Fold (Atlantic silverside) hypothetical protein.
Amino acid sequence: MAGWHRVTALSLGLLLLFCAWCSGRPAEKCLGGETCRSPRPPVVLIPGDLGNQLEAKLDKPSVVHYICYRKTDTFFTLWLNLELLIPVAIDCWIDNIRLIYNTTTHTSSSPPGVFVRVPGFGKTYSLEYLDPSKRSVGEWTSRGGGQSGGGQPGETARPADRTLCPLQACISSASCRRWWSGATPEMTTSEEPPTTGGKPPVSPHTPRPAAPPAGPSSPPLPSVSPADENKEYFLALQQMIEEMAEKAGGPVVLIAHSMGNMYTLYFLNQQPQAWKDKYIKAFVCLGAPWAGVAKTLRVVTSGDNNRIPVISSLKIRSQQRTAISTNWLLPYAHSWPKDQVLIQTPKANYTVQDYERLYSDIGFQDGWLMRQDTEPLVSELRPPGVEVHCLYGSGVPTAAAYSYSDKFPDVEPAVLYGNGDGTVNLQSAVQCKRWAGRQRPPVTLKELPGNEHVNMLTNFTTVAYIKTVLFSP
Ligand SMILES: *[C@@H]1O[C@H](CO)[C@@H](O)[C@H](O)[C@H]1NC(C)=O
Ligand SMILES: *[C@@H]1O[C@H](CO)[C@@H](O)[C@H](O)[C@H]1NC(C)=O
Ligand SMILES: *[C@@H]1O[C@H](CO)[C@@H](O)[C@H](O)[C@H]1NC(C)=O
């Protein structure tokens, strides 16, 4: 969802966020230190689409080009490695990162001989740098005018270093596995439903926090829809939260960005209220696409290279269409006017009510199945049942509708812009307002005028707000 160029800002943003929390290994340094005595809640970060590393190992029956590796001895970084995105190499990359959707089982898997895993569950490194060599991020960072240049974001981060030092931050990056592409073989091959009451199934290679004992009060997660292949992730997340809360002697703050909010809402919707009362202090939502985003329509229709000229939109479309989550995030009828044209072509107009026809007309029938699989996951927008702080950017031109020529769908569209944060349409971001008065814990909305979807993570106002949530009694 965030585009290629956004990866820059995303890395930078998260890096700075982490600088605020983690640099200087504050946890050890501050133990017993004067300024660090007051209790601070542990934090779980749930990143957005494209927001964490993926690794792959290959033993493929065939490759699409002779320069592509067929077999590797070890796992290598699949995301983000800019070297894999240059012409020709990108064909190898697409053939590795794409998912194969089974229309019978409504599940997806990596291509034969491709094993993808998410490194760093419960740790922060795989989110701080998308590229482990740190090289490309460094370059992109300086181009982004941030960190090394001593710009505004760097300055916002530094004071926070001191005040936030005792935070234990953990990320739950495994969620991102399906958010846009990769699937870990361990997770997708496990067909067994979670056992209720007893210990949840643990696959030996699944990255997870060390042996968290399931407390007597920990509820079994109900089985999830067949479309949801993330149940082990949710179980690991639940256990990590329980473990962190018990260690810290208090509840955890969840901070999600972008699509991570959809995952977090789904997760909280599955938990009994007593569990949430015990373990969750607050849920901070940053740039949440509660009702989908119009931009995904372009992604499935004609692909979106985010204006990087070396990558052909149509070529990247083939990969982007396999990411089931793109279809999950098509605009939702509950928040878009039924008669608003989202895609216009010389032959037809498409609104939120015309997705089946749209998928058929663009030659992507599986997409309609993927949409039906995913749409019900959080479409009711049931209140999460925890204290909510819903922050969103506005006033940034945001794609709202597309107009195609008669070459539809194999052509770049003209874009019609509306209000939002540059990615998430405003009418989607504000849907958390539905929860006010419908749940006991408070729901607070905060508009951040002028904040772009990813850059909001480094904005002083955002960081200051999060601090007030963390440090409130
Ligand atoms: C889809 O899954 C079913 C059941 O596991 C299997 O029999 C079938 O071969 C799969 N289809 C494809 C195209 O792989
Ligand atoms: C699509 O909608 C526009 C107005 O939004 C209208 O002018 C046009 O005739 C419609 N096209 C078709 C094919 O219905
Ligand atoms: C941060 O966000 C606030 C609130 O939206 C805005 O007024 C301010 O200009 C932003 N700061 C920067 C440096 O973008």
